[in-house]
Amino acid sequence: MPTSETVAKLYDEMDFQRAVQCYLWALPIVSWEGGRQANEANFGADYDDVTLYGDYRTLSTAFTPNLTTPYSWAFLHLAEQGPTVVEMPPGATAGAIIDWWERPITDVGLVGPDQGRGGKYLLVGPGQDTPEAPGFHVFRSRTVHVPFFFRVLNPEADDAEAIKAGVRIYPYSRHEDPPPTRHIDSARDGELRTMVPPGGLAYWERLAEALAGEPGEDRDRFFRAMLRSLGIEAGKPFQPDERQRKLLIEGALVGEAIAKTCAFHRRFVGIRYRPDVRWNYLISPDWALNQDVDDYTQLEERSTFAYEVLAMSAGSMPTKPGTGQTYLCAYWDADGQVLDGAKSYRLHVPPNPPAERFWAVTVYDLDTRCFIQNKEEIPERSSRTGLKANDDGSVDVYFGPTAPAGLESNWIPTVPGKAWFTYLRLYGPLQPFFDRSWVLPDIETLQ
Asked: 130-173: per-residue pLDDT in tens?
């Protein structure tokens, strides 16, 4: 018979292991709850309001965005509003409506059912009756909370403003006379709240908030059972005792370390873009958009993605050249060393990058996964920002604390003492990307 000391030790060990696994399981909804809270704190936004993350300051609160195509965000609450309409105007946009667990419900814009012609999307929540809605694209969400985001792809300011102003969100019950949608174009003054999940006990407080009102799914029943022993239970306030607090804090610490390991040392089959370079695909080639395959749910794939990125869409896994967008990631230089903010580097982008619309290189802080915070407020260079090209049409992008003489337009400032990583985005990727005939060299250390 186990002694009382052994019993206490083993229960602590079991609940600590549960905390670590629940940390990884919960990353998508903790991140999205962070996004909702940031939207509220930074913009004063409520559900169904549309906010614009359009500059370096506001986008610095988000996970791995790009600066070339500013984002608009909104959050729906289908339990409060009932079936809800998202109305997209015509125009070149890319975005998605997704559920609380990072599963795309539908893309909108060029890759969505409206194909850029504009359309009305009706979202129906769990347990709600589906209205007869001719002329609407009707989709059912498995969660009560529904995030929505989009980007305007054309750079013309007038077109972009008209498209953004044309987005409307309203309850379907009022579709015959829709109320106006509130668009909030600038964040509040002062320090902005980040979407990055907090550490320690605050992670679990946010998880309890994210789970509130959400129906459980069969695939999550064991995780919800594990959370009960840690003080998180549906319909009850989160009030952990001292023992639970200690285990939760330790579990969050180890959970984040595992998530960072999974993100920056991915072990998925086929994750390398080419065997002769260190560039990885951001999204595992065998990723299932709904995260479920024949006999399991892609838990590690999901937590890896959610640690580093917010907002999944079908358009991020294009199969047809010239559509959607794709991402290559670099966490190391050509010698396999961590990218150091105190050193200088060069990325040689060969001629004719396989992107129909544009390409961009963006630098992120390794710890926050947000834009690198440099005094110049330059985290990105793209084919739309006036890069200086070489005679053969190739482009050299430079990273480092000081700009190379005469090539300031090609330079992204880094910060000594901060490790970083980068994405190469291809909007409208072309066949040389899909067949991997376009070779992107590794990042070269200059000093």
From this structure: 999 999 999 999 999 999 999 999 877 667 788 888 999 999 99
CA 109 to chain CA centroid, nearest Å: 18
Rg of the chain on CA atoms, in Å:
22
DSSP structural state of residue 399: E
Phi, psi at 251, each rounded to 5°: -65, -40
CB 65 within 8 A of CB 198: no
Would you tell me how many other CB atoms lie within 10 Å of the CB of residue 447? 7
Rounded to a whole number, what is the distance in angstroms from the first to the last CA of the chain? 63
Of the candidates 240, 239, 208, the one whose C-alpha atom is nearest the C-alpha of residue 224 is: 208
Residue 352's SS3 state is coil
What pTM was computed for the model? 0.95
| Torsion sign, CA atoms 107, 113, 118, 123 | negative
Rounded to the nearest 10 degrees, the angle between the axes of helix 299-308 and helix 242-264 is 90
Q: What is the per-residue pLDDT across 13-51, written as a single tens digit (0 to 9) for each? A: 999 999 999 999 999 999 999 999 999 999 999 999 999
Angle, CA of 387, 409 and 52, to the nearest 5°:
85
Domain extent listing, the chain: 4-31+196-264, 45-184, 280-445
Q: Strand 93-98 vs strand 145-152: parallel, antiparallel, or unpaired?
A: antiparallel
**CA–CA distance from 435 to each of 16, 122, 288 (Å)?**
45, 37, 21
Distances from the Cα of 324 to the Cαs of 3, 151, 218, 317, in angstroms? 60, 12, 32, 7
Which tokens sit at 412?
A: 């992204």
Which residue type sits at 385?
Answer: T
Q: Do domains 4-31+196-264 and 280-445 have the same CATH topology?
A: no
CATH, range 4-31+196-264: 1.10.3360.10
